[in-house]
């Protein structure tokens, strides 16, 4: 971990989340310098391998100083391996574009529709399955959400609306309120699910305005976090999770199984225990979505199944995430 004085410089207490967002680390060499690994700078790929670096200072502060194998650092540091073209890896790994139903709306599964609420993230994870997604053309929030809401309104089978991205909590709370006002006239939508990494990587986003908005919603509310390692949690993340629960939100977590980051039984057990300590239930453990640039993260199915079995022997069932793979065109996630 970095020193307390460095942490205070990285993320001064009480700073507004929008300021922290703007001040994120966006240079890979600077990131290495913050964690005492300047000597690795010459091994970085040119042009960040085509995917920009973005890491909030608070997340940097949780990395182990001087450790080139730190599991948080490896999630966000560009690697030369990303430039290799590997057969079977594509720019649309899960068939998003084939599921497009309206501007920014993906309708893959019965009873649920997903809105691409934003193309922005507070952190750019190197394994992101939407790192090549055409966000400029597919934004549900455009035009006061009009086209997206029209699609949802016309399909009475949609009972759950999923906000994804990018990260939907990158939007101002006023923009989220705009969506919820539109949903008031769509009675068949009874549940709102938000997929977000912000409460983990930028917990300051869970501010009074967001909490008040969530608490006021007449819908059932589910927030699915994304954390891959227990070290991603600290007191600030715990506090953000507590505020979300107090607003009536059910908290779940989905992780991605990543080689060299969380592909050990001890690591997965520690993650589940740490999630539950923060009031979050493990939900999914995803096998890697095969997007171009991510092959070096893949864990083979046999090892993945053995890891989950080892976790099952050590934890109660409610702390064992379901191992799944998303396959484009299938009617649900595929259990492994």
Explained architecture:
The protein has 336 residues and is α/β, with parallel strands linked by helices. The protein has helices at 4-10, 17-22, 28-34, 57-60, 73-76, 146-153, 173-183, 198-201, 208-216, 235-246, 265-277, 301-314; strands spanning 100-102, 105-106, 112-116, 160-164, 191-196, 220-226, 249-256, 281-286, 322-325, 334-335. It has a 10-stranded mixed sheet. Helix 10 links the parallel strand 6 and strand 7. Helix 11 crosses helix 12 (301-314). The radius of gyration is 19 Å and the shape is globular.
**Bulk shape:** globular
Largest sheet: 10 strands, mixed
Q: What order do the strands of the largest sheet run in, or round the barrel if closed? A: 1-2-3-4-5-6-7-8-9-10
Distance between the termini: 36 Å
Helix content: 25-40%
Record field, number of beta strands: 10
Strand content: 5-15%
Average predicted local confidence, pLDDT: 94
Instruction: Please count the helical segments.
Output: 12
SSE topology string: HHHHHEEEHEHEHHEHEHEHEE
Structural class: alpha/beta
Integer-rounded radius of gyration? 19 Å
**Uncertain regions spanning at least 5 consecutive residues:** none
């Amino acid at each position: 971990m970095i020193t307390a004085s460095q942490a205070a410089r990285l993320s001064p207490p009480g700073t507004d989340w929008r300021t922290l967002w703007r001040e994120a680390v966006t240079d890979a060499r600077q990131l290495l310098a913050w964690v005492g690994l300047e000597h690795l700078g010459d091994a970085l790929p040119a042009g960040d391998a085509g995917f920009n670096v973005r890491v909030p200072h608070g997340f940097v502060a949780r990395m182990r100083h001087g450790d080139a194998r730190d599991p948080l650092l490896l999630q966000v540091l560009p690697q030369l391996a990303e430039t290799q073209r590997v057969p079977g890896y594509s720019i649309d790994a899960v068939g998003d574009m084939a599921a497009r139903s309206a501007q920014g709306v993906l309708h893959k599964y019965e009873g649920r529709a997903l809105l691409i609420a934003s193309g922005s993230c507070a952190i750019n994870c190197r394994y992101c399955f939407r790192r090549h997604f055409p966000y400029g053309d597919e934004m549900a929030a455009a035009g006061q959400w009009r086209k997206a809401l029209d699609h949802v309104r016309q399909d009475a089978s949609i009972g759950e609306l999923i906000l994804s991205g990018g990260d939907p909590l990158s939007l101002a709370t006023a923009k989220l309120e705009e969506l919820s006002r539109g949903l008031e006239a769509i009675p068949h939508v009874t549940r709102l699910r938000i997929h977000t990494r912000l409460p983990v990587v930028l917990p300051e986003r869970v501010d009074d305005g967001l909490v008040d908005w969530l608490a006021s919603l007449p819908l059932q509310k589910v927030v699915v976090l994304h954390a891959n390692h227990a070290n991603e949690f600290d007191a600030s993340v715990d506090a953000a999770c507590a505020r979300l629960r107090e607003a009536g939100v059910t908290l779940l977590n989905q992780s991605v199984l990543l080689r060299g980051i969380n592909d050990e039984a001890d690591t997965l057990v520690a993650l589940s225990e740490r999630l539950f300590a923060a009031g979050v239930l493990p939900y999914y453990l995803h096998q890697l979505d095969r997007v171009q640039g991510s092959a070096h993260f893949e864990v083979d199915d046999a090892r993945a199944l053995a890891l989950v079995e080892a976790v099952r022997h050590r934890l109660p069932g409610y702390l064992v995430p379901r191992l799944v793979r998303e396959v484009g065109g299938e009617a649900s996630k595929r259990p492994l």
